[in-house]
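User: Just a sanity check before I run the rest of the batch. Below are the C-alpha cells for the first item. I only need the designed sequence back.
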C-alpha cells in the first residue's frame, strides 16, 4: 500500500518543474498518501475484527440454541460417535452430557431398530443424501425404550464436498406412539364389538367412486375385504327379489329428500347362497349445490335371529290369541332401555324397558333429576359412573361393560350402558341419551364358567389345578413371612386322603355308584372341616385338604375325624350296602418345606405308609426326607 502511494507521488513530481513549490507539493502529497494508507489499514483491521466477532457471536448463538432448545440436538461423527449433545437430548435418555457424549448412537439405539437409517448413512457417504429424517427407538439409561423422531443435515467440506459430521434434532414422540397404539387398540375393540353385535358400517362416497364396507360386515357375508367395495348399486343385486322393490323405494324416497333417513329390513344373499335378514339404516350427510348425493353413511345389522324369533312369535300369536299381550311384552323386552335428559339433567323420557329395569314409572320420573331414577356404579370399584354433561373434547359416547344399576330399593342389576350427549345445530349441549341393557345373565354365566374352571364337576370341590395354585400361594406367603413350619408347630397342614376299598364299589356297582359315593365322601370331608379350611378332589378317589389353622396336633385330630366320617357313611346301591375307609398322609406347609410337589410327595408317601400300616389310619410325614413316617391309628 505504501509503495503504491510513493509511486503515485513520484509520477506527480515528474510532471512538475523542480523547485520550492514543487517540493512543497510533493511533501503534501506524500503525507496525504501515508495518512490514507494508514486509514485503509485501520479499516481492514476493523473489518477482520468485526468478522471474527460475528463468527464468535454466531457460534455463541448456536451453543445457546443447543443449550436452550427443548428438542434434543446432537453433533454426530460419521462413525456414530456423539461429538456434542445438548441438555435436552441427554435428559431425554436419562444421562448427563458427559455420559452421553462418551457413547455412540449405536449404543443408545434399540437393538431391533439398528437397521433403521443404514441406507441414509450409505447415501450420505456416497454424496447422494444431504438431509434425513426417520423414527426409531432409543434406550434410556435404565434400558427402557423411548420413541423419537430424528431429523438432521450433513455438514460437508466447502471445497471438497466431503461429509464432516451430522447435526441431528431428536424429538421425543413416545407419547404420540402410545396414543397411536391406543387408537389401534380402540379400533380393534370397535371391530370386535361390531362383529359381536352382528353389525357393519357402509360409506357411500361418490368422490371416491363408490361404496366401502367395514371388514366385519363383508366377512359376515362370506366375502374378503374389499370384495364388495366399488359399485354403489351392487348391493341392490344381493337383495332378495321379493324385498328389492320395497328397499329401492325407501332408498329413492330418502335420496329425494322425502324422508329424514333411510331404514329398511330385507333379506340379503350370503356368498354361499343362504339368506340373511338385514336391518339397514343410513343418512345422506353431503349433497352438491344441485342437491345430488355426494356422501351417505349407514349401518347394517344382522337381525336374522330376531326375525326368526319374530316369525315364531307371530305364529304363536295367531294360534294363541289370548297370549297376544304377553307376546307383545316379550317383543318389547328384546329392545334396549332408553332414558333422555335435558341440559339440566332432568328426565324428559323413559321407555317401558327402562321403567322395568329401574323400577320407576315414566310418569313418576319425568322432570326429576337423573340421579333420582338412574344410579349406575362400577361393579368392581363401587364408584359412580358419571352420566353428566361431558367435558369439552370428550368422546361423544361412553360405554362401561362393568356397570351395575342400583335401584331405589337397593336391588341391583348388571347392565351394559352407552351414554351420549345431545348437541343442537349450534353445537350446544342439550341433554343426554342413556341406552342400557340387562346383562345380569351374561355376567352370571361368566362367573359360572370361572367357577367351573376351578372346581371339580362331580363333587363341587376345588379341582387339582386350582388347589395347586392355592398351595403355591401359601408356600410363597410362608417364605415371604419367613415362617418356619414344623410338624409340631404352627402354619398350615396338608392332608393327602386316599379312599380304601373304593375300587370294589366301582367293580360291583359301576361308575354311577362310585360317582354317587364320591359325592357323599366330599360332603363328609367338608362337614368335618372349618370354614377357612380348603378341600379338593385331586382325581379318582384321591382328595386333598389344607388346614389353615394348621397346628400339627389339631391336624391329627381332624384327620382321624375325616377317617371316622368316611368309615361311618351309610351307603347302599341297588340294595347292597358298601363300606369304605380312608388313609391319610399329613405334611406341613411352610417356608422350609420345599416346593409344592415336594410337600405333596411327602404326604403321598405318608399316606402309602398309612395303608401299609393296615389302612384307616393317619401317617405324619417327617420334615427330613430320610426320617420314617409315624403311623397313627384311627379313633374307634
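Assistant: Here's the designed sequence for the first item:
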Amino acid at each position: 500500500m505504501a509503495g503504491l502511494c510513493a509511486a503515485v507521488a513520484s509520477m506527480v513530481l515528474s510532471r512538475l518543474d523542480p523547485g520550492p513549490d514543487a517540493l512543497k507539493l510533493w511533501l503534501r502529497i506524500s503525507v496525504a498518501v501515508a495518512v490514507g494508507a494508514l486509514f485503509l489499514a485501520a479499516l481492514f483491521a476493523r473489518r477482520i475484527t468485526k468478522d471474527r466477532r460475528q463468527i464468535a457471536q454466531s457460534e455463541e448463538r448456536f451453543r445457546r440454541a443447543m443449550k436452550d432448545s427443548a428438542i434434543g440436538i446432537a453433533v454426530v461423527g460419521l462413525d456414530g460417535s456423539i461429538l456434542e449433545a445438548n441438555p435436552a437430548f441427554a435428559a431425554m435418555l436419562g444421562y448427563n452430557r458427559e455420559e452421553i457424549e462418551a457413547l455412540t448412537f449405536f449404543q443408545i439405539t434399540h437393538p431391533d431398530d439398528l437397521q433403521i437409517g443404514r441406507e441414509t448413512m450409505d447415501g450420505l457417504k456416497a454424496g447422494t443424501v444431504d438431509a434425513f429424517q426417520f423414527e426409531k427407538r432409543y434406550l434410556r439409561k435404565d434400558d427402557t425404550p423411548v420413541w423419537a423422531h430424528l431429523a438432521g443435515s450433513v455438514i460437508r467440506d466447502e471445497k471438497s464436498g466431503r461429509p464432516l459430521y451430522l447435526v441431528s434434532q431428536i424429538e421425543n414422540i413416545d407419547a404420540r406412539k402410545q396414543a397411536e397404539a391406543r387408537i389401534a387398540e380402540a379400533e380393534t375393540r370397535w371391530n370386535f364389538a361390531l362383529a359381536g353385535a352382528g353389525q357393519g358400517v357402509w360409506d357411500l362416497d361418490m368422490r371416491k367412486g363408490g361404496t366401502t364396507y367395514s371388514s366385519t360386515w363383508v366377512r359376515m357375508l362370506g366375502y374378503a375385504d374389499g370384495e364388495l367395495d366399488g359399485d354403489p348399486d351392487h348391493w341392490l343385486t344381493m337383495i332378495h327379489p321379493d324385498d328389492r322393490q320395497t328397499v329401492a323405494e325407501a332408498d329413492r324416497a330418502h335420496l329425494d329428500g322425502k324422508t329424514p333417513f333411510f331404514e329398511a329390513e330385507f333379506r340379503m344373499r350370503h356368498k354361499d347362497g343362504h339368506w340373511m335378514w338385514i336391518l339397514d339404516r343410513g343418512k345422506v350427510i353431503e349433497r352438491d349445490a344441485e342437491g345430488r348425493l355426494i356422501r351417505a353413511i349407514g349401518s347394517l345389522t344382522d337381525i336374522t335371529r330376531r326375525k326368526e324369533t319374530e316369525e315364531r312369535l307371530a305364529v304363536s300369536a295367531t294360534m294363541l290369541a289370548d297370549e297376544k299381550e304377553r307376546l307383545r311384552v316379550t317383543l318389547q323386552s328384546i329392545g334396549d332401555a332408553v332414558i333422555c335428559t335435558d341440559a339440566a339433567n332432568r328426565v324428559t323420557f323413559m321407555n317401558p324397558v327402562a321403567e322395568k329395569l329401574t323400577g320407576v314409572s315414566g310418569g313418576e320420573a319425568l322432570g326429576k333429576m337423573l340421579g333420582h331414577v338412574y344410579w349406575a356404579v362400577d361393579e368392581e370399584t363401587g364408584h359412580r359412573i358419571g352420566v353428566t354433561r361431558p367435558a369439552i373434547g370428550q368422546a361423544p359416547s361412553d360405554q362401561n361393560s362393568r356397570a351395575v344399576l342400583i335401584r331405589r330399593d337397593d336391588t341391583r342389576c348388571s347392565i351394559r350402558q352407552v351414554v351420549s350427549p345431545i348437541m343442537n345445530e349450534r353445537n350446544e349441549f342439550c341433554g343426554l341419551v342413556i341406552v342400557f341393557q340387562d346383562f345380569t345373565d351374561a355376567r352370571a354365566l361368566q362367573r359360572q364358567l370361572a367357577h367351573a374352571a376351578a372346581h371339580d364337576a362331580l363333587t363341587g370341590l376345588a379341582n387339582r389345578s386350582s388347589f395347586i395354585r392355592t398351595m403355591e400361594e401359601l408356600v410363597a406367603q410362608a417364605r415371604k413371612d419367613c415362617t418356619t413350619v414344623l410338624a409340631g408347630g404352627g402354619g398350615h397342614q396338608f392332608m393327602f386322603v386316599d379312599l380304601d376299598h373304593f375300587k370294589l364299589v366301582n367293580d360291583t356297582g359301576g361308575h354311577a355308584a362310585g360317582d354317587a359315593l364320591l359325592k357323599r365322601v366330599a360332603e363328609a370331608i367338608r362337614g368335618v372341616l372349618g370354614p377357612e379350611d380348603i378341600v379338593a378332589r385331586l382325581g379318582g378317589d384321591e382328595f386333598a385338604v389344607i388346614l389353615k389353622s394348621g397346628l400339627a396336633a389339631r391336624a391329627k385330630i381332624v384327620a382321624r375325624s375325616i377317617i371316622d366320617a368316611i368309615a361311618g357313611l351309610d351307603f347302599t346301591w341297588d340294595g347292597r350296602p358298601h363300606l369304605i375307609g380312608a388313609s391319610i398322609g399329613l405334611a406341613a406347609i411352610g417356608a422350609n418345606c420345599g416346593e409344592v410337589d415336594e410337600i405333596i410327595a411327602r404326604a403321598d408317601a405318608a399316606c402309602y405308609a398309612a395303608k401299609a400300616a393296615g389302612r384307616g389310619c393317619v401317617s405324619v410325614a417327617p420334615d427330613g426326607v430320610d426320617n420314617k413316617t409315624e403311623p397313627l391309628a384311627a379313633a374307634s
